[in-house]
Specification:
Elements: H1 4-27, H2 34-67, H3 83-103, H4 110-116, E1 123-124, H5 127-140, H6 143-146, E2 148-152, E3 156-160, E4 189-193, E5 195-204, H7 212-237, E6 258-260, H8 269-277, H9 281-284, E7 288-291, H10 293-299, E8 311-312, E9 321-323, E10 326-330, E11 342-347, H11 349-352, E12 353-366, E13 375-388, E14 394-398
Parallel strand pairs: 2-12, 6-14, 7-10
Antiparallel strand pairs: 1-12, 3-4, 5-13, 7-11, 8-9, 9-10, 11-14, 12-13
Helix pairs in contact: 1-2, 2-4, 3-4, 5-7
Region (Disordered): 1-92
Main location: virion
InterPro entries: Phage_capsid, Phage_capsid-like_C
Length: 402
């Protein structure tokens, strides 16, 4: 009888076959042909059948693992409403995860290995621990604190181009409204892709002897830091799917309109005000600047006609500085002031940019590569994407050519 891991590997092959059928049709800009539809339907039936078998096999493997454990007084009492079983299963996954990090999958018992191994032979990070890691990211990044976020279960998100919705007053019966259809007559199919983000964390062999509590805290911190900086760079200046990166809001691929600065070597107050008022009013309400620290230092010296500084330092921890009454976020991946450079952005980032997280963070244990240094390497794989979903909510300041 195949194990749940082997069944998952079979199911992954079925999914890959289904994906190749649909991608072939989309590449040719057509629907599925009759033979392709029959093949796709057969794969779909196989997928459902394998999913049922996996659930049954995992339940059987879990029962076998529980039967092998010593009986503990008071555990899983009938009057606990079934909570003990779910809590126990979560704890078993965490325990198996930490054992996999310490020992590697090949050295684990089959029933424990099945709890944390995916079809590619990688270690699955437990969902609750992955949630804790994602919760720590906004504290380490700029973009996750200001952009919208969404969890998905696919490798890409399909979206259609949509203009601003028009509204009007008047009675429905008399057709007094003067409305414009917000959907273009020939809408454009657009996709946001989920990319693979890799990070590397190394831990001393002695640290692996610590308790699971200490290891848990180390993983949350190191995994989050390994991903945070790369994410911020990708969401800001990422080159898009062709480069296996998110679409950065500062790139031409993001489609954000630009505002031309008056000069090529220095930013003026007039430039920043043009940037603000070029943004539609409904997005100015929640507007904020995104600029690197060097540019913030430059605008910190700008004054009004009464010789008062326009830049105001924050007097409260956790709140950003302000300029012309709007918050200033430091994004160090943006270009410094130079001829033709895109040096600043303004707008409602929550409305304009969206981050997509796909659950399923995985780890590979590199126990030989750093053995001479007494270290164990963990190669982290996180699936995440990002794209400008509403370009009109943002504006970019571009310096003049030299």
């Amino acid at each position: 009888m195949p194990t749940s891991v082997e069944l998952r590997q079979q199911r992954a092959g079925v999914v890959e076959s289904m994906r190749s059928i649909t991608e072939a049709a989309e590449t040719a800009n057509r629907g599925l042909e009759a033979e392709e539809r029959q093949s796709y339907d057969r794969h779909e039936q196989d997928f459902r059948s394998l999913t049922e078998r996996i659930e049954r096999q995992e339940a059987e493997e879990l029962r076998s693992a529980q039967m092998a454990e010593p009986i503990q007084r008071g555990r899983n009492r009938p009057d606990d409403g079934g909570r003990g079983t779910e809590e126990q299963r979560t704890q078993e996954r965490r325990s198996a995860f930490f054992q996999a990090l310490r020992r590697g999958l090949p050295r684990m018992a089959p029933e424990q290995r099945a709890l944390v191994e995916n079809a590619a032979g990688e270690i699955l990070v437990p969902e609750d621990l992955e949630t804790e890691i994602n919760r720590a990211l906004p504290e380490l990044t700029i973009m996750r604190g200001i952009a919208s976020q969404r969890s998905i279960t696919t490798n890409r998100v399909r979206r259609r181009s949509l203009a601003e919705v028009a509204v009007g007053w008047g009675k429905l019966e008399t057709a007094e409204q003067d409305l414009t259809d917000s959907m273009p007559s020939t809408p454009t199919d657009e996709y946001t892709y989920i990319e693979d983000l890799y990070g590397l964390a190394k831990v001393g062999e002695d640290e692996l002897d610590d308790s699971d509590v200490n290891l848990d805290a180390f993983i949350r911190d190191s995994f989050a830091r390994a991903c945070a900086e790369a994410e911020d760079t990708g969401f800001t200046v990422g080159a898009g799917h062709a480069a296996h990166q998110p679409v950065g809001f500062m790139t031409a691929g993001g489609g954000v309109p630009t505002v031309a600065a008056a000069g090529a070597a220095a930013i003026t107050t007039d430039d920043m005000m043009k940037l603000i008022y070029a943004t539609p009013k409904q997005y100015r309400r929640n507007g904020r600047f995104a600029i690197p620290s060097g540019t913030e230092l430059a605008i910190a010296t700008l004054k009004d006609a009464d010789d008062r500084y326009l830049w105001q330092p924050s007097l409260q921890a956790g709140r950003p500085n302000t300029f012309l009454g709007f918050p200033v976020e430091n994004q160090e991946d943006m270009a410094a002031v130079a001829a033709s450079a895109r040096v600043a952005a303004f707008g409602d980032f929550n409305a304009g940019y969206r981050i997509y997280d796909r659950q399923g963070m995985t780890v590979k244990v590199l126990d030989q590569l750093y053995a001479e240094d007494g270290l164990i390497g963990w190669k982290i794989r996180k699936r995440v994407g990002g794209d400008v979903v509403r370009p009109q909510a943002l504006r970019i300041l571009a310096m003049a050519a030299a």
